[in-house]
Write a structure and sequence with these properties.
The complex is a heterodimer of chains A (220) and B (742). In chain A, 52% of the residues lie in helices and 5% in strands. By secondary structure, chain A is mainly alpha-helical. In chain B, helix 9 runs antiparallel to helix 10. Chain B is globular, with a radius of gyration of 33 Å. The chains are: A mainly alpha (220), B mainly alpha (742). At the A-B interface, helix 2, helix 4, helix 7, helix 8 and helix 10 of A face helix 19, helix 20, helix 21 and helix 22 of B. Chain B: Belongs to the monovalent cation:proton antiporter 1 (CPA1) transporter (TC 2.A.36) family.
Chain lengths: 220, 742
Amino acid sequence: MGASQSAGTEHEFQDLADRTGFSLEQIGNINKRFRQLSNNEETLSREDLASIPALDNNPIRAQIINAFFDKRNLHQNETGTVQEIGFEEFLMVMTHFRPAAMGLTEEERENLRREKLRFLFNMHDTDSDGTINLEEYRRVVEELLSKAGTIGQETAKAIADAAMLEVASTTRGKMEPDEFYEGITFENFLQILNTFDIETRMHVRFLHMDTATLRCGKSK
Amino acid sequence: MSVHALRKSASSSFVFVGIGLPIEASAPAYQSHGTEGSHLTNITNTKKAFPVLAVNYEHVRKPFEIALWILLALLMKLGFHLIPRLSAVVPESCLLIVVGLLVGGLIKVIGEEPPVLDSQLFFLCLLPPIILDAGYFLPIRPFTENVGTILVFAVIGTLWNAFFMGGLLYALCQIESVGLSGVDLLACLLFGSIVSAVDPVAVLAVFEEIHINELVHILVFGESLLNDAVTVVLYNLFEEFSKVGTVTVLDVFLGVVCFFVVSLGGVLVGAIYGFLAAFTSRFTSHTRVIEPLFVFLYSYMAYLSSEMFHLSGIMALIACGVVMRPYVEANISHKSYTTIKYFLKMWSSVSETLIFIFLGVSTVAGPHAWNWTFVITTVILCLVSRVLGVIGLTFIINKFRIVKLTKKDQFIVAYGGLRGAIAFSLGYLLSNSHQMRNLFLTAIITVIFFTVFVQGMTIRPLVELLAVKKKKESKPSINEEIHTEFLDHLLTGVEGVCGHYGHYHWKEKLNRFNKTYVKRWLIAGENFKEPELIAFYRKMELKQAIMMVESGQLPSVLPSTISMQNIQPRAIPRVSKKREEEIRRILRANLQNNKQKMRSRSYSRHTLFDADEEDDVSEVRLRKTKMEMERRMSHYLTVPANRESPRPGVRRVRFESDNQVFSADSFPTVHFEQPSPPSTPDAVSLEEEVPKRPSLKADIEGPRGNASDNHQGELDYQRLARCLSDPGPNKDKEDDDPFMSC
């Protein structure tokens, strides 16, 4: 089980709760999970995450793990990756998966959208240059289809090409034959996923986590 | 106006037919005229002239009438849409009921007995197509995401409606002044249960025209489908009880058990037939023409079987359609898919039209017992109980939902609870011994009229007024599809990190189970391994190509002038003149041959379409590719200049045109050999379309393919031309292989 919370951390949790919008209970549960994953150490490394059995069959496993260590997701204005993260950073990454609360203003909703889409964008933009170029997009599709055998690999290129074409068509309209479309910028990304109601889809239920078995009890 | 003329002529001919006055009723044409007994006088044996023209109506009476009714109904439908403003204001269902009323009135005026909507006909013939159409094309994702809410509305909402209405009506009947003191509680509850169920036919008819957002649509619609189980149980229960007269606790308990049996049993029966249908479709590759029939017949059998056991037929149909669809669609040809779609739409449209017209006619026909208080109270109570039910349930449900239901949503859900023909038929089924039958029927009809006319007509302006979110019109976008899948995996992963076995975890497990075990059995050939993304992509390409064929456009008039060249990184060295000419010549030669029709051979995997379609599609692709090639060839064919290799550094272009007939082994491929030192990032294959012959080999080299020879086209590609380019990151700056836009 997780380590018991000391009184000192209560205060930290409150501070974190204010900053991230999670409730104290949720933060407590996430903390317990963190401790379980990190074997009661202070920091989490890639190997700790890689050892989670539930991730084994996931085709985009590597990207998910990288996302946790990507500085851009940690609400800091830096790029690059870190080797280990502490609880606070872990929590920061988790904030991207909060559901949209009721009664948000339009602006808040828009900000939430941008935040979540930014997370996705960072996952695709592996060289941190602010655009997703064709190569990176191809890699995304290849990873998605990586469990599909040879058929997947061959069509991955075609699919990625078609997708890129679509983005270019939607965002740039007409282009001269010798113009070059560098890649998907974040604004383009927002545009093509305009109809995607990501603020409702991209969430994980952090509700009542069953602390006894460290699995979230509410399954629906 | 044209409608009136149509109506008059139709009704007059109906009159003619209905009365059945023949011109000359005679036996079959050949008559044995009496042998002219010469000794017989001609007095008794009048020799009739050979009847050149005779009418024998009785012979064809039944089918004739049926066909005429259907034709009348469809002509009405046609007429409505010719009147420009009418169909925008009044929903079709209302118009059809009015027509029914008029026709019924006409028949009555003539003195004939207007036909009533026979319950047997309704439940066995008219209802199944509509439900199957709804179930087969049920949008799965929103349905499963909201299934909890839908079930709560369907089960608890209907129960609440039934008891609330039944109870209050009974209380009403106790009042002396109403004059209905003979009605006991059970009868009222029975009535309540009949009238409380939201009707899928009416909901479909009205909601189809208002294009409301997906969430509300699926909520109301799903509820109307799933409440059938509750209705069936309550109806049977109360009918049994009202015969007996008393209710015990055991009976109530049995009722609850019955509910589970009815609903789960119905779903089970439907699922079994669904799997059977999917399994059958695995083997239909040689008999494509009858594929749609399997879908229809298995579904109908599911419905009939469950009706046989008094299970919920509607749920069986829905389950059957939902279960069989993904597998069947992976197996059947594109044409069969289109056929299924259109037949279902056609039948459900006819059914719906007939149902509404018959409702109108039955209103004129049926025995009526009018009691102002009862009827008015029923209508009001219907509305009140619905609104209360929705609000109350939403309050509870919103605690468990991520996407809460707003007040607007609630209003539409409440207002969209229309009653329809199912209620009427159930009422009609009541045995005549019920002394209140006529009263109930009248009240039911009034409720139906009220909901369909008043609510149906006003819902559209209300939707506009309240600015309820409309359905997003979006084309299928490959980016969205990619990100839907990506998001699914991402959320599963994060749930895993969280240690949370939630929604996505179980969905993932189900998918994996589906892929490893179920698909293997139910999908023909090797298709079952195909991931959804690829299937989606192919479907999109197919649609685009077919669109191009149908519109007769060539790529030069395509709106977007962005093509692969804009995306691909540049810096392509030029090919030497000689090579270029050679390449051009060969390519042109292959392109300009006449196409010959190919016999369609047996299908193997990756089959997407038949020979005919492939012809058209391939023709377009040919022309398109030819033009593209002509334009871009000089830019994009490259020769990596500094390769040491035994052969001249020319890239391999494997090229199969569909112009020539050749056997599986020998292909007149055009080869530009790519020398195969491993440092070469990749080979290029320009692949022409090879749709027609399943056994054609196409070479696709991936980036990992070092030598082009190694991947000797063991992959059959019956799909549209795909020009794959593998630029690969090349350190020598010589990357950016040639490619061609497709």
